[in-house]
Known about the structure:
Elements: E1 10-12, E2 15-17, E3 24-29, E4 34-40, H1 44-63, H2 66-82, H3 84-95, H4 99-122, E5 129-134, E6 137-145, E7 148-152, H5 158-171, E8 175-179, H6 186-198, E9 205-207, H7 212-219, E10 224-230, H8 233-245, E11 249-253, E12 259-262, H9 268-280, E13 292-296, H10 300-310, H11 332-347, E14 352-355, E15 376-379, H12 386-389, E16 396-402, H13 405-413, E17 417-418, E18 420-424, H14 428-437, E19 442-445, E20 460-461, E21 464-465, H15 470-475, E22 478-486
Parallel strand pairs: 7-8, 7-10, 8-9, 10-11, 12-13, 12-18, 13-16, 15-16, 18-19
Antiparallel strand pairs: 1-2, 3-4, 5-6, 6-22, 11-21, 14-15, 17-20
Bound molecules: NADPH dihydro-nicotinamide-adenine-dinucleotide phosphate.
Amino acid sequence: MFFSLPLRQLYYDGQVHAASSGKTFQTINPATATPLANIQVASNSDADTAIAAADRAFPSWSQTPAISRARILQKAAAILRERNDEIARIETLDSGKAFTETSTVDVETGADVLEYYANFIGSGGLKGETIQVREDVWVYTKKAPLGVCAGIGAWNYPIQIALWKSAPCLAAGNTMVYKPSEFTPLHGQILAEIYTEAGLPAGVFNVINGAGDVGAYLTSHPTISKVSFTGQVVTGQKVAGSAAGNMKYVTMELGGKSPLIVLPDADLENAVDGAMMANFYSTGQVCTNGTRVFIPRSMKTTFENRLLEKIPFMRSGPPLDEQTNFGPLSSASHHEKVLSYIRYGIETDRATLLCGGLEKPTMPQSLQAGYWVKPTVFTDCTDSMRIVKEEIFGPVMCVLSYDTVEEAVQRANATEFGLAAGVFTKDLNQAHRVIDQLQSGITWINTWGESPAEMAVGGWKKSGLGVENGRRGIEAWLQNKSTLVDMSGVGATFLPS
Ligand code: NDP
């Protein structure tokens, strides 16, 4: 079979290695449903070897002065920026996301986080604290890295997720073995090669490929000190459970069903644009999507009419085309999952289908086999509908009307998830009051989705544990060591004084 991209192997100890499993899998271009590349699967013994390489690299990397680590990470960020479009093209082929997104967001926001943590450690950010307890007694607490860490990525922001995990991990002085999702594995080796080119010592960042069983082997390995996982709640629960039994640190970035509340005084254009960004960006495959859109009953018709006027601006087409802003879903299995939710919404939940639905958008011949879906809006939804309660992870908006703000807040919080939330209003006092009551770790006012490097992000409730990014994000990759120093010369003694 002809593959348009070369075979991918494993990357550890500073170079590419053939896997010993004898097994491969294919990564598929979701726009055309054609195979892109063959990927070798890591065996348990390959994973052991990669973890051993990371373990050998740890003592020296963790002792490397922060300013020297910073220089290497800054160089890697610069290479990522130089190669932005080339990497973005590969991400588009692998994930189906429009090049207009991958070239402006995916690589760039990953490089931003790398640069942020490099600058943070380079400017003395890894500082502890000192407390004077008595005249001659001091306590100082220093920050220490954890050791060899595992990074497990989801398929929706492949290289960005790899960078949001590896940047703070390596900046803090840890080493990492990373497993990308089997649906979007191509970025792994590219990132490892960039780190090596930037001067990262062999074994500090390693990549193994494979499906969930490879992830499970990696995350439960006794040498691994910490697991940083991005994925579904149900997988996260398994991974966190096995990590807890072995006293490993965890960061869990999981799913959501986030509420977006439009208040009666909101600017209509801003609210409609926000709801579209919160549902259709990346073809709805964003963990923080605001898929439950709460609208004042009196505003519903106006809101929906404007939404219908704007939806044609979502343009499906060849994902590399500069005009395309709406790609296919990422895989055949995910396509089937999203369609089954749409079918359920029509046939069983019996919500009103405002637009979109089960029919494939009209596509040129070369794209007809791809995993395309239309931007879909259900209205007259109720809180008990399955499409309103469960994460669909596709471009499916549910419009819910409400009568009072208190009611909207109460219904917004009535979910097991707590990833994101947002409010649209011109009344800033009301905005802060409502945001304060929403049970979510990531919130927005009059906008949706932006997540800069400085912003610590993480879910509440079942949506996760811990945060990524910002100053708080690096704490998750460090442990504390407290030392009490007695300078009085008269330490505690059992002998009579
Ligand atoms: P999955 O949970 O299916 O998979 C996530 C990763 O875990 C993949 O690399 C997967 O491998 C691997 N994996 C599967 N089983 C195990 C296991 N037992 N032990 C260790 N690793 C395992 O999630 P998706 O890839 O489908 O990603 C979509 C989900 O991610 C959505 O729910 C979304 O909300 C969430 N997400 C959350 C974000 C956040 O920051 N909160 C950001 C982005 C996405 P493989 O795929 O190869 O099977």
